[in-house]
Design a protein that fits this description.
The protein contains 15 helices and two strands. It is an all-alpha fold.
Amino acid sequence: MILADKIINERKRNGWSQEELAEKLSVSRQSVSKWESAQSVPDLQRIIQMANLFGVSTDYLLREDMEDIPVSEELAEYVGSEATITITMEEANEFIEIRRETSTRLSGGVACCILSPILMLVLLAFPKVGSGAIPTKVALGIGLTVLMIMVAMAVYIFVMVGIRRSKYEFLEKEGFETAYGVTGKVKEMKKDYEGRYTYGMAIGVILCILSAIPVILSSLLDDAQNMVLISVAILLTFVAAGVYLIVNVNDIQSGYNILLQEGEYNILRKKRAKFFEKIAGVYWSSCCAIYLAYSFITMDWGRSWIIWPVAGVLYGVVGSLAED
């Protein structure tokens, strides 16, 4: 297959017109038309650009003896055996819409958990301010009640988000193919979202950094225990706002990565994750058995707990090795 045919195939596989491809390469539509009709050949810089844009190698574009896009043996085996599901444009749009809709709820639930202790902190500080003092036990009781209610609300949100997303949960774990034009459309949507993603991440991180300022300032004051509690409440408010933005934009961005099978959602990692799930079940069962056996034999329950943090560290090491 010659270069001209490969350009046509890759352009159509991504669902782009000649005008759209020309715009991405900063050339005229006539140039693309000439390349595809073999009237001219793109220069080396354009070939490299197209290779990056199409997600293929320059060898594939230039060598006529390479008819198919080269993939690793492991990847080819996985695609051939498991990636039998095809996602249509309608399904892709529905998935993205669900992701956008539920990401706001998800980030709101996380923020709700962070904000839950604020009222208790404020009420505990209130008895030390002015004459209208609230007994500490009453303040603690009211604060804990509100905290539990807010956490319960967050759990409800998480459950409902999980139910809403359950229809497309398999996309995160299974290999799949996309119908004609879906990949190109999703890539464009992801590119359009990059600005908002960068902005949201930047603001979120800045808010988390600035959250420490009230605590630092309150620590400089003498005999201001109530101000310390208030400053912690302000810190949690800043952190909640920052985390809300970070979780929201990251969740939507991961939706695009899921459809494009990029990053942590590429099909090889999915295959490894399935294998690692089996290892994890055996691993933690073994740890539990070792913990109980050692504890009952030695009756040294005061020290046997160390098995769990050690197991957690080793589990992280095992997970890192599985990724390589």
